Amino acid sequence: xxxxxxxxxxxxxxxxxxxxxxxxxxxxxxxxxxxxxxxxxxxxxxxxxxxxxxxxxxxxxxxxxxxxxxxxxxxxxxxxxxxxxxxxxxxxxxxxxxxxxxxxxxxxxxxxxxxxxxxxxxxxxxxxxxxxxxxxxx
Length: 138
Prior knowledge:
Strand content: 25-35%
Shape: globular
Number of domains: 1
Distance between the termini: 33 Å
Mean pLDDT: 77
Low-confidence stretches: none
Largest sheet: 3 strands, antiparallel
């Protein structure tokens, strides 16, 4: 479940989304929304007046109120979820800018004909490592 979401900037957004942060990617502004800091009031405003999107795939996201258990068993704020396609982990808890750059690199390498993987695990030097984006040459 994604931790971050984005919304298009609008006039006086700071008044309605005080926990949002303005970010820029490819010369385009957006408001980043972190599920760990967004308030219930902000979520209600978004549900009523704005469309919230995934920063990676741009699909519409919704917020699940309440708490969920983390992998360690502790209760944490709920997360955004993809409304239509059921993707569970489009970009997980990484930052919006990081997720968008990773998506950009993935897209460009795929366009060039490479076999590309996200979050690929490898054995390297006796250790298990995970690459954000792995390009496989044959």
